[in-house]
Structure formats: structure tokens, C-alpha cells
Amino acid sequence: MRDGYYLRYASLNFKPARRVAGIIKPQQSAKFRNRVFRAQIAEFADASNIPQSRAHLNVASGGSIEPSFYCWYSIRVLHLSLTLQFCSSLAFSFRTSTSSPQMPAATTTETDQLRRSARRRNEISNYYRDNDYGPLDRDDPQNVQHHLRELRAESTRRGFDNLFDAVLTAAQCDEEQFQDDTRDFIQTGGLTTMYEISQAHRSKAGIPEDSALRRQVCAAAQDIYLDEWARIIREPSFRKPLGKFSSEYIESFSFTAIYATLLQLAPCLFALLVAMTTRTTPKPPKPGERVRKVYVDQQWRQRVVVFAIAILANLKNQKFNVVQGFTSFYLYASHTPKRVMAVLNHLGVCVSYSSLKIALSANGEACAARLRSVCKPGLAFFVSYDNLTKAVRVRDDRIHNHGGFITSVAGFVYVPPPDFSQPMFTPEDCDYRRFMELNPSHFGPTESDQKILQSAFASMIWEAVRSFLQGKNIKVPEINFPMKFIHPIEQSELPEILTLPMYNLDEAKLDDAVQIHYSIQEDIGMTPEQVIGNIVPFRGDNLTCQQNRFVILWLPDILEGLCFGSLSVRQIVDSVTLTRPVVGFIYRYRCLFYCTGPI
Amino acid sequence: MLVLLYRTHLGQSTDLCALERWIAELEKNRNKIWNADKDIVKNFRASEDFFEIVLDGYLVASIVHACGFGESTEFLTNISTVPRETLSKAIEALAEHLAQFKQVAQMKSAPSELRDRPLENMTMFMQQGLTMKNFKRAMRDGDPGRALASLSYYTVWFQASSQNKYTKKR
């Protein structure tokens, strides 16, 4: 049972008793309690002459006060000569009668006379009348509110405008303790919590209208944004010199990856940008229009935000060219005129044309370097090339200005993924004698092909029937004819395709065909040992294969007119046609006649 | 390959199972599909799309017939009553039938009064169409093993056509 309950109940109609009830609080010191009690007891004595007061007092004391107590009051014994010892003992008697375990013993020895004026006191002399909540209990909202009200009242009483004014004054104070408290409050997220609470209660009217005040509010966050902006500018991955643009760097370009990096560097800035660029309500689709998926808008927004950030960052530091460099490459590949690129450069969209040329040269050198390192690991690869004929037209055909065709050779090197790689082929890996065993049945359909097709046919037939049924909104029977995989390519391990430089040669001409192989041999960086001891497979169309095979058929006749040192013609022919690698033959004897037939 | 198939199956508008007839029936723009002057397909996507529509129609019609129905509407109405095993067996039987590429040659070897030319054309159309479709699907799925199965038949077809240089590439 809480302290003073009965007394409070009794004091509903009895003012003196209510005041007495307020006196008896466990939080009050004995000195203060006795002093107030003395002031009240005089009124209490006056009021005790009223008959009904006795009854009220009886109820207020819980019925535990002896009847002699009333008599004692009624004969007006208690008057100005009441001693402090008596007050203390009486107070102790009240506390014990209400079974308060917190009530301390009143053991004061104060004997001062109670100061009184002739005027009757009307003001409330007990400021803690309702303070029966005890110490701060955060789980009890009423308790917390009560303490806050007291704090606010106290701060107002001490001259502050309100509680926050007091807190703000403390934050501005030079005393270390207050500064520590302020720092702890901010570091532990108190400021964020307060902002979120204010956001929860925010209304449009809550946003300041005064522009100066708005700037003042925003200036608080400016340092954070500038700090994040400096992080973005300093990020080394966004400041790649155009001269160091490599094919790997170009292939690694991704708006999503850049956005993720930017988001990591500047979370607050991007939170603001996201809030600025996100639609609060989705755009309603038109009748018959399919509903766009959310991620499409997300990717779009990311691209736009990254582009905007890149242009602004480039304005701050021209070395920030993560997007401008790739945009320039795209424009160059799209045959954008030089004058257009100059205009876009002034808008910060792309780099200048001179810088682009530097980047292209660097990229070309990087590609050439990678191509020259193909043979270093000693792993197998193959080369494919073909003629590339381009029509070159002129607007006005003149004597010295004719339209025509440019014929060149383009090709690539296929490097298999690491799991499928194997050492470069040697002459022992090739048995050209088995060419004689080849016949049309090796290329025609087999029983295995027929079984594969039968399974695939069943799957495709069921697919057609199912589509037909689904188109008619008819429930599809649960039948399954899965498409079987025979030899699927591993999607996670992609091969590397390295493009060869374009050769100004014509493979239809035999001399040029030989020169093509010399050029390829040089560009892929084959060592003399590899030229002699290894075989490089070549792929090509009918003409390519025909040109490469043509020489070997006529080689014996041609070689008879040439001198090859100590080797006989027969040995050379054998080495070329049967065992010796063809490219090695070229390197060794510098002969124009060789063969690189498909293996 | 699409050009080759169009040249083979274009036929006349009066033929029972010819692409020319289906162009008219389906009200397709012939000029967008086939270039008669150069004897090549004009728009590859449009031509391929039309070819696959006809192919799917043949396949569905064959299954409807195999399930014992005369009309596709009847098949749609009673599909719920058709046992799954019946439908599965019909599909398997048709796939097995089409995978036998000697079927058409055997049908052609019959006496002329017993030959069913529309059926021969339809069977060959479905065989060649499915083989091409398998090649396309295999390339899309990244399965060279399945693509080679189609290529082995391509080799023979190209060798028999005027475009026999493709056979040498094989």
C-alpha cells in the first residue's frame, strides 16, 4: 500500500487534513518535514474545533489514532507552545500508522518557534503534494512525465525559457563536464533520435519559412556533406588517368558498381539524392500497359545520379573522369563527330578529343601487351581470321578520287577458361596420317545425333502444345519433357577473346596469306622455341582453309628449286606434312610456303 | 538455313502444305518475308517468326490428330478428359516419327498413286523446322553438343543444295 493513501482519501473535503497528508512523504528530510508540519499543525488545531473535522481526521489516520488525540486537540492544548519534539513524535506516529516502510525516524531536536503572521495563509505551502511517484522510472510514462514537468518547472523557475534552453546553455558552457555531456549525447545518437522525433511530429508549418533560418538549419549538415564529397573526390578508383585505360578497366565499367562505391563513400549525400529522385507515388500504368518493375526505375535512377555526380565532381577536379572516359569511348565507337564531342566536353559529359586519343592509344597498347603475353603460359589457344571487305564510297567520283573497297584481315585469339586449358599442342599430338581415314560418315548424322534430336523434338512439341493451351486459358496437364543438355558451356567460366590488329593484307593472295601468319606470330609473342616445338590451331572459313592447305599440296614441287642447307627436300617435306609444326617450319627456314590447316 | 528451308517449302499458294499458302491464309505481308527477285528472305526476324508459327501449327495439329480429335476446338474442349499418358505417348510417338529422317524418302518411294504428297511435305517441314529450331535453342542455351546434332544434318542438306560451300566449312 502506498504511503499516505488514506490521508489523501480523507483530504478530499478536509483541507487541513489534505495538507497534513502532503507533509508525510518519504522523500522529505526530517528537518523540512518538521518545519512544514509546524506551520500546518497550527491551522489544524484551529480547524479541530469543527465537529466534522474529527471524523475526517479519524478517517485520514486510518482509524489508528487514539481518541485521546482528538480530545487533546479539542481542548486546544496544542497551541503555539507545541515543541519540536512533540511534532517529531507526532509525525513519526502518522508514518507508522500508515505502515510506510520508507518512513525514516524523525529524530530532530529543533525547538524554534513557529513564525506566523496575522494573515491567514492561502497559498499552497507544500510544493510536493502530488510527488508520490518516487524515483525516475522510465518504464512508467506517468512517472517520467511527472519528473519532466518538475524539471521544466525548475528550469523556468531558474530563469531559463524552457528545458531545451537550459540544455542549450549547458552545451555552450565552457565547463568540461557539460561539454562531455554534449559530446556523449551527440555521439550516442541522441541528436539523431531527437531529429527523428521532431520528424515524426513535423508538419509543413514546422518547416521554417525564413530563408536565413533555413540556411542556418541546413548549415548544420553542410560539413558532413562536404566531408563526404571530399571522400568521393579523393577516391582513387574514380581518378584513372586516360593514359592508363586498359581493356580490363573498360570491361569492368558498371553504373551499379560505381553507384555502390559512391553510396559507401557518401551515405548521407546519397540518402538526400535518393529522397530527391525517388517518386513518392508510383506512376500509374496506362490501360493495357504492363506494370514496370521497381528495379528498372532503380537502375535508371542510379545511372542518372552517377552521371550527375560525375559531372559535378569533374567540375571540382578534372581528374575525376570515371564516367566521362567511358562516355567518350561510347561516343567514339558510335562515330560521333568531333565537333559534337567538343560541345559535350564543355558540358562535362565527356573528355576532350585530344584526351580521347590518348586513351585510345593507351587502350591499344594495353591490348597489344595482353596479346603478346598469350604464349607466355604455354597453354593452348586457337586463332581465327577472315577477310574484311569494306566499301569506301565517295560523294563525287573524280579522276583521283574513286570509290572502292578496302580489303583487310581481321581476327581474334581464343583463350579457353582456366579449367579447360591444356598445354600447347606439339607435333606428337597431331597424326596427319589419319586424314586419309576421313570420310563423309565422320561429318554426317549418327545414331547418337538422332537420339539427341528425338529428345529435343519431344521437348519442343510439348512446348508448342503447352503454349497453345495456355493461349486458350486452358489448364495445362502436368506433363514434363525437359530439354536435355548434352555438352553445355559453363556459364561461369567464360573464354577470353583477344582481337588481333587489323592487317592490311588480302588472304586470297598467297603472299599475303603467308605475311598474315608472320604478323600473327609476331603479335601473339611466340618464342622461337614455341615456333619450332608447338602447333597453333587455326580456324577459318572455306577460303582461309583452302589457302592454307593449298601450299602443302604443291610444296614438293616448289621446294625442289630451293636450297635448305643440310636438309634434303624429302626431309623438309616430311617435316612439314607429317610431323614438324608448320609455323616452326616458317620460322626456321623463312620459307614463304607453309600450311596451318585446321586441326 | 532459313533461306534453304524457304526455298524448299515456299511452294505455290494452291499447294496444300506450302508456306505460300499460309502467307495468304494468315494474311501476312509477303514482301516483308520473302524477296522473290533475289530468292532470299527479306526480313530475317519476320521470316523466322512466320516459319515458327506454321511449324507450331503443324505440331499442334499432329498432336490433336494423334489424340483422336478431328478439330482443335474439340481437343480444347475435351483436353481435361484426355489422360496424361495418352498425350505423353502421342508426343513421344510424333518425336520418334520425326526423328526418323528416312521416313520421307520411304514415303516417296511408294507408288505414285499411293503417295500422300501433303503428308510428305508436312513431315519434311516439321523435321527440318524442328532441326533448325533445335539448333537455335541449343545456341541460346549454350549447348554445343546439341547444336552439333543439328549441324550434322545441315551438312547433308547443304551438300544437296546449291550452297554446298557451307558443307566444306563443316
Characterization of the model:
The complex is a heterodimer of chains A (about 600) and B (about 170). By secondary structure, chain A is mainly alpha-helical. Chain A has helices at about 5-10, 15-25, 30-45, 50-60, 65-75, 85-95, 140-155, 165-170, 175-185, 190-200, 210-235, 245-250, 255-265, 265-275, 295-315, 320-335, 340-345, 355-370, 445-470, 510-525, 530-535, 540-560, 570-580, 580-590, and strands at about 380-390, 405-415, 495-500, 540. Chain A folds into three domains: about 5-130, no CATH class; about 230-280 and about 290-370, no CATH class; about 375-435 and about 495-590, no CATH class. Chain A has a four-stranded mixed β-sheet. The model of chain A is unreliable at about 1-30, about 45-110, about 550-565 and about 575-599 (pLDDT under 50). Chain B is mainly α. Chain B is built from ten helices and two strands; from the N terminus they run αααββααααααα. Chain B has helices at about 1-10, 20-25, 30-35, 45-65, 70-75, 85-100, 105-110, 115-140, 145-160, 165-170; strands at about 35, 40. Chain B is globular. The model of chain B has no long low-confidence stretch (mean pLDDT about 85). Chains A and B meet through helix 19 of A and helix 4, helix 6, helix 8, helix 9 and helix 10 of B.
Summarize the structure.
The complex is a heterodimer of chains A (599) and B (170). By secondary structure, chain A is mainly alpha-helical.
